[in-house]
Amino acid sequence: MKKLIFYSFVVLLAVGATSCKTKKTAYKNAFDRAKEKEVVAPEVNTNAAEQATQPNVTVTRSTNAQVAVRKEKITPVLAADASGLRRYSVVIGSFVNQTNANVLKDKMEKNGYKVIIAQNEKQMFRVIVSSFDTKEAAAAERDSFKAKYAPDFQDIWLLERQD
Prior knowledge:
By secondary structure, the protein is of the alpha+beta class. The protein folds into two domains: 2-36; 48-161, Sporulation related repeat (Alpha-Beta Plaits, 2-Layer Sandwich). Helices cover 39% and strands 23% of the residues. It has five helices and seven strands; from the N terminus they run H-H-H-E-E-E-E-H-E-E-H-E. The longest helix is centred in the first third of the chain and has 17 residues, at 2-18.
């Protein structure tokens, strides 16, 4: 009888130990959920000391206090996007890693936007959701986008393309 209890205990222990293995799909599901919850925090540079270390990036404010514009030299990652890049762009994300920029681009393209990824001189990837010839049109689109996707994307900013 004691042998039967002992062997039953060993079998239960073996079954319990093998059922605790992590599955590859569990990792993939957790990664997919994390990507969906990813918070996009664009880089904002308003500190004068930081501007001194980045001479090619400047932030200016127009007479309208709501319209802040960052000036940068940028180039589109894909040559086909060059025709869609105007002087003023609405930036919804800024990444060091191009893969992260592509994830956001794919998400926004599913929502019907024609997204452009551009890279600046500091090798940052800017995710641009729309581009305009005038600052006013870009600011209006930024405000519309913020309202549509509230509370997400509240740190959207305008980029003025320098040649």
